[in-house]
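Case study.
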Amino acid sequence: MGDPLISIRDVKKYFPIRGGLFQSTVDNVHAVDGVSFDIERGETLGLVGESGCGKSTLSRCVMRLVEPTSGEITYNGTEISEIPRKEYWRRAQMVFQDPRSSLNPRLTIGYSVGEPLIVRGVGAEEVRSRVTEFLGIVGMNPEHFSRYPHEFSGGQRQRLLVSKALITDPEFIVLDEPTSSLDVSVQAKILNLLNRLKAERSITYLFVSHDLSVIKHMCDRVVVMYVGKVMEIAPKDEIFGNTLHPYTRLLIDSIPNPGAKEERTMMGRESIELPSNIDLPMGCRFSPRCPHASEECTRAQPELVEVEPGHFVACHMYGK
Amino acid sequence: MTKTILEIRDLRTYFYTYAGVVKALEGVNLRVNEGDIFGIVGETGCGKSVTALSILRLVPNPGRIIGGEIIFEGRDILKLSEEEMRREIRGKGMAATFQDPSTFLSPSHTIGEHLKDIIKANADDPRGLKGRELNERIISTLAKVNLPDPERVADQYPHELSGGMRQRSMIATGTSGRPSLFIADEATTFLDVTIGAQILRLFQEMNRVDGTTIILITHNLGIISEICNRVAVMYAGQVAETCTTEALFKKPLHPYTVGLLASIPLIDREADELEEIPGTIPNLIHPPEGCRFHPRCKHVMEVCRREVPTICEVSQGHEVACHLFNGEVRSDG
Amino acid sequence: MTTEQAETAEATPRYQELRHSVRLLLSNPVSAAGAAGVLLLLLTAALAPYIAPYDPLAINLQGRFLDPSGEHLFGTDHLGRDVFSRVVWGSRVSLTVGLITLIEASVLGTIVGLVAGYKGGWVDSLVMRITDVFLAFPSIILALAVAAALGRGLTSVMMALGITWWPLYARLIRGQTLSVREEQYIEGARLSGAGGIRIMFKHILPNCMAAIIVQISMDVGFTILAAASMGFLGIGAQHPSPEWGLQCASGAKYLVYQWWISTFPGLAIFLSVISFNLLGDGLRDVLDPRLRRG
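After joint prediction, the assembly is written out as follows.
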């Protein structure tokens, strides 16, 4: 504790909207609007939120695929913009969401999985042996080296993406909705595999998902985002057992849950859609939907405050 | 006491593709009672969407329904002509909404225009319905699905609406003909969790207030538990188990159902490792002999490899298609 | 481990996909006809020395203007040369011109298109404006102007046509690049550490090949026609080359009574162009993934 692997400080990412005759910037999409938190060494940190919350954009900022508009991200104390890209991408990797479009259909899986090594000048012999080694590690048949992605199922392609992410022996992996497009029974296999790999290779995970049940199963701590900002951060048991933020409460209550007896009371007003990232409400982002919204909530944005040890909330209901 | 609104007997739907014949549905049996919210749950390739399309007789090329009966409100609709289906059944008797409403809503027509067409098509006297009365019908239909500001929505095009609103619009067009059966195929899959929850609430309302029977098709067991009263579990083109929702979670019988339940991370359960069902979903061009689940089944027996299991009613309203339960045969033969 | 093996056992092997594509192509009678025509042309060009009964350049002033007969299938021309042999050997000329031109155009156009599409920004804008200028000219006029500047002969023709055609390919590849660029596997490639060149040529280019192949197969017909037109106008091939356009020109003044001198080369041009067009159309349909089902 206390020596985070990754530190995110007040990161903002705005996407300009161009319009007018000269394509000048008319407005901005506030994809990520001032986010700060740490990722501790060895943990699986969950990043959860619905569409538009900014979790995908933020994870791409952490991976240096996207440059933040402002703010700072450090890796082992060093600003990531100062680490040469190839070096950073050796230590930090990412597994993408859609197995269907994450592998180039025209290249063999042997090439796709081995590319991180090929690009760094590793000889063909060694590339081949490492790729077959990692194919085996993720439970694939190493002889399928020269096959093409369309010859594999969704679950298998996801494994290929995992082996590609592992091949440079990274210490940090961002998992962006790794099982969202998979069948439930396949998901179980992938999640078990991810946990096994983490234990064997001491990797830190940032697990991005919209599915709270999966988050609960996989993660040690959880960060909840809503429309570009962090609403709550807490260890897993606290998030589910001692939910503080009304949005987190709404999210948990919205999960259809097997075995639920009573009809859950719908928190939040009916039929209010998620706000856009362009016309933002003044004050707290969640105030239009919050049943506890007060006058102060519509005026001022709440700060993220540590209410209990390790438990942070951004809500006016909780004292400063 | 309870009336059967839809009964499917031994339905077979095949797809004739260049790679071979995909036996998507191989003897599907279902019974839905009036007033049910009936869930059909299964994974990729189980045939749940094909079942929905078969019921509506909208199976796309190269698919064809090649056998069985679909008895809706007493009539075998497989025997009706396309004209009769269009005139009497679709829209009035049954309606549906699918995963991606954008493919069913024309981008060059406003929502109001869509509704106008459907309402007129289903009205008994299309010419009598016009002007202000028609408009009022449109607005009230949109208001029923809890769309905020229905007058505004009626003038908007599908791409101007959010995903949740498009789904509601599609539900509105579906229910405008006041169907007795409404089929929702993965209606909430593309929606955010909180928005999807609102759509589920809407279905419950339709069922409670209008008495509409709902068939909910999904891969999400949580949704089933939340709003369905009865459920059918499908695997590889057949029905593995049919029972009440409570029985499904408390006393699942079919090994596939048991495995499925054990592999989901549940919000109210702790598990270090999720159980895995070994193997994968079979190829439907060359499905396994006998029970289609047998290659993956923990309890596989010799007979499973040879014979397709018959459906047994193990207890009141609980049916399984599995050789483990062959001892208890249905009392009505 | 065995469960994974079972999974991929069901996969459609590549050759089966290829066989299906060919079958699909040939199932359409129109594109099958096109394919047959192209095949005929290729065989004629390849086997010219064996098919042509006479030396195409052999002048025989005793046997001028002979009617088509068993001895001379297409008759003889004003210099007594066997028209059939000339048409057969002419296929080599036309095909060479067509293919070389298109190789030039496609290679140059592809490189420019890839860079423009991938880099975007000012590079893209610049390329777009340049191609706009080229495409604004009617291609024949442009080709004529360039050929005239370079002097007569087939080499000038090939250069001129290459210069006229490359902007088309640049635009085509740029468009493809723009869409492929957004695919998640490109992001994955970046994450592997792949640089721009590797991404453009190893990742994006293979995904454009289908479009390139279709375009080339359609264009061969047009380049043959363009070369023939230039030959007809006297800018392209020079005497005594058996180039079809040139033959049409030479035979033009005898069209009424010795119609065979221009007609057969003209027919050859027509058949070649149409065959490539039909083949190209058919290929486009086959390679369009949406039409593959059923």
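Observations recorded in class. Confidence is low (pLDDT under 50) at residues 328-333 of chain B. The first helix of chain B runs from residue 48 to 56. We will return to this complex in the next lecture.
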